[in-house]
Design brief:
- By secondary structure, this protein is of the alpha/beta class.
- It is 43% helix and 14% strand.
- The chain has two domains: 139 residues, Rossmann fold; 69 residues.
- It has a six-stranded parallel sheet, sandwiched between helices.
- The longest helix is centred in the middle third of the chain and has 21 residues.
- The protein starts with a strand and ends with a helix.
């Protein structure tokens, strides 16, 4: 293999994506705990997905409800992490069958995810994978990490420094993953799953594969 490190996205690559209820419930409960029992559609979407942006959400909740959005957003993310643990325990969020193949790749291994950092660690602990990775990063729950999501490269660059890799490849499932890898100056692989089977990634990854088994085979002959 012509790479001395492989960095993975988590959801959609190593483990199934979270069911939608994980985010719906987290938004509903965070709003209810803040005393907002009948949010507007815009308010619900702001807490579920931050639609409209941080500045608008902060102004909206502070002026309309006298609620600090930074606390609301942090609580939402704590609940998202807890709900994911429940989804894993209930079998709604499982490792992909081909994940084991990727974990046998030689060299250093890392994870850079747009999921919460505590959710990454929940997955590692639940599936006994901590010793299979040398470093991992997810997002912190507060508003300080809004904008740190891929294709931003901050956590990618930290992972690459941890791994002291001369040449690395990042494995993702979205165009933003490919862009993050290229922005960080490394190659990218895109893994096809049912939800992205027909996607046309932009930018174009160096590897476009139907499974992690195929990726391992491709990397084995990448010289």
């Amino acid at each position: 293999m012509d790479y001395d490190a492989v960095v993975f996205d988590m959801d959609g690559v190593l483990i199934e994506r979270s069911p939608s209820w994980v985010f719906d419930d987290a938004a509903e409960r965070a709003l209810r705990e803040a005393g907002i029992d009948e949010p507007t559609d815009e308010e619900f979407r702001a807490v579920r997905t931050l639609r409209g942006g941080l500045e608008d959400a902060t102004a909206r909740f502070e002026s309309t409800h006298e609620v600090a959005f930074d606390r609301l957003w942090r609580r939402r993310n704590e609940l998202v992490t807890a709900n994911q643990a429940t989804a894993i325990e209930d079998g709604e969020k499982a490792l992909y069958d081909d994940a084991g193949a990727a974990l046998d790749l030689p060299g250093a291994r890392g994870i850079v995810s747009n999921n919460q950092h505590t959710a990454v660690e929940t997955v590692l602990d639940r599936f006994d994978l901590r010793d299979r990775f040398d470093t991992w990063y997810g997002l912190r729950p507060g508003i300080e990490d809004v904008g740190a999501e891929k294709p931003a490269t901050g956590y990618m660059e930290r992972a690459l420094r941890d791994l002291t890799a001369d040449r690395a490849v990042y494995v993702g499932d979205r165009s933003s993953d490919v862009a993050a890898a290229h922005n960080a100056g490394i190659d990218a692989a895109l893994v096809r799953r049912e939800f992205n089977a027909d996607a046309d990634p932009d930018p174009t990854p160096e590897y476009d594969v139907d499974s992690l088994h195929e990726l391992v085979e491709r990397l084995a002959v990448a010289d």
